[in-house]
Amino acid sequence: MTDAQDTAAETALRTAGGAPPDAGVAAEEAPIPLLEPREGVPPVVADADGLAAVIAAFAAGSGPVAVDAERASGYRYGQRAYLVQLRREGAGSALIDPVGCPDLSGLGEALSGVEWILHAATQDLPCLREIGMIPTSLFDTELAGRLAGFPRVGLGAMVESVLGYALEKGHSAVDWSTRPLPEPWLRYAALDVELLVDLRDALEKELDRQGKLEWARQEFDAIVAAPPAPPRKDPWRRTSGMHKVRRRRQMAVVRELWEARDRIAQRRDVSPGKVLSDGAIVEAALAVPAHVQALSALPGFGHRMGRRQLEQWQSAVDRAKALPDAELPQPGQPLNGPPPPRAWADKDPAAAARLSAARAAVSELAEELNLPQENLITPDTVRRVCWEPPAERTVEAVSSALAALGARPWQISLVAPLLTAALAANA
To answer: HRDC domain spans which residues (predicted)?
Structure first.
């Protein structure tokens, strides 16, 4: 770390220990542009020998390890990692190419028991898990920022407000599957882990000052313990503009076009949106074109699309048109839980009253604690308890219900009394 970085980090740590979370170094002076990693941009590791050297270096390092991953969202199919960045005391920084080194389980094992520092961990953990990197302990700097009450929790904003440095964020949305990766992109990637350890230390002090450090630890443990998310049921229903599609036959067109697009995108390894836009799918569903000529006149199926492409999309439309009524998709998705809150007043006025009282109490407490409501307790958890409350309206019974829904002990201790009062007042 340079002398300037040392000074700013020390100031930030003092600030984190005794000032509101939004009153960091940046509030006093202009942030210092962070232009180069302290040891320069490391070479990209893309072979077994290079990976073995990184594993040895990081296994011999000390303290927590900063971890980040870059994907190619919007360019490639899926969410695989195309670059992994790490930094640890005694090992420096490393950039690893998961295309050349697709199995990083050896690195993951070498870092077992070490605290991993990630920013917005739930975004990167799925792609890291695919290549064998699974943490046993972590510190999420974004989540820590939320719990500490920071108004902006992006990495750049956090580094600026806490440590007084400005990160260059111009390459966040580039195609990371590009090979070779340009030097400016690699510099940007290395800088993303450059100050994560410093940020983690400052945030830990701030959380401790606010009495929220144990809350954060419970949240981090929950992220580590969470199983991989199951495949989404009927993912075609999330097509942008789906709310315009009302009839079951039209919904079948969306489903057939979505599934055809997904097969093509997977085969070509490109983002589905580059094969056919959601808007085009919805237009075709609303029109249910009778033939290729009618399809080609719709937005999204213009003159740039070849005859063969148009025919494959028309075939999908024709499959939907040929389905018997019994095989058409049902409107909406089967509910797993309470109905939308807007329907509660008609379906169960007492439940609606319970929800209104619970929401108001949770909102007031979240404001007092200076943290987002959804981090105090998830809205879905509140809805489920209010819709089907425990038979006994006691704090113990409500606590058990919250625990069954995945609430952490710190959340239960704060929220259970509020929900108990809301349930008792609107039995």
So the answer is: 247-327
**Superfamily of 238-327 according to CATH:** HRDC domain (1.10.150.80)
Secondary structure (3-state) at 110? helix
Tell me if domain 3-225 and domain 238-327 are identical in fold: no
Q: Do 114 and 138 form a contact (C-beta atoms < 8 A)?
A: no
pLDDT of residue 169: 75
Cis upstream peptide for 37 (omega within 30°): no
The helix/strand/coil state of 37 is: coil
Residues 6+ away with beta carbon under 8 Å from 22:
149, 150, 151, 161
Q: pLDDT tens across 91-108, in order?
A: 999 999 999 999 999 999
- The separation between CA 243 and the C-alpha centre of its own chain, rounded to angstroms, equals 24
The CATH class of the 3-225 domain is: alpha beta
Strands 92-96 and 81-89: antiparallel
pLDDT at 170: 76
Distance CA 237, CA 242 (A): 7
